[in-house]
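Researcher: We're teaching a course module on how sequence relates to structure. For the next exercise, students receive a sequence and then see the predicted structure as tokens, so they can try to spot secondary structure elements on their own. Here is the exercise chain.
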Amino acid sequence: MRLLIVEDEKRLALSLAKGLTAEGYAVDVVHDGTDGLHRASEGAYDLVILDIMLPGMNGYRVCSTLRAAGNDVPILMLTAKDGEYDEAEGLDTGADDYLTKPFSYVVLVARVKALLRRRGNAGPSPVHVLGDLKVDTAARRVFRDEDEVTLTAKEFAVLEQLVLRAGEVVSKGDILEHVWDFAYEGDPNIVEVYVSTLRRKLGARLITTVRGAGYRLEAPR
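Model: And here is the predicted structure for the students to work with:
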């Protein structure tokens, strides 16, 4: 699942991103309200963590603008208990939940998971079936025939991107952005390593390399 953090305290934002990435989420980070609105409007995010006090556009305006445009992405709002901002106002603008700074990271993760479960229950089925391959994106489980295949968090995240766009070509850049987030500065060939591992675990013919374009998940037979 892909999360967006809109937080101008860079140390906090990057710390949250690191922790949530370790939980298995793909995380993007922006530090400005205007950029946050643009990314949330254009990107397919499963949840937005949104600070209130932001440069460019405050969190209230970002939230209300998204809701006015019909965007129902879950929003967890971060508030500062300083008398000027009120969590009730955040909820009035369409936020789904809020946390007051300073907060426990464990509590934040629990709130994130609760919001994602709520959205999953209201949305389409999280189980994707392609031939004898079954991928449950909510439970993060993978089966070939009736046999469960154990994947690491990163392996599952790469597979998830291909499953969600089965039959389409998914570029290496798209996978890097969704799985390793925008700040990744390592070797882009890391994607090839994970695709190779998925082929070994799930079958060599499952993922086709489209030279110069990316990878395509083929329905297994």
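Model: If you want an answer key for the exercise: The longest helix spans residues 105-122. The chain has a mean pLDDT of 84.
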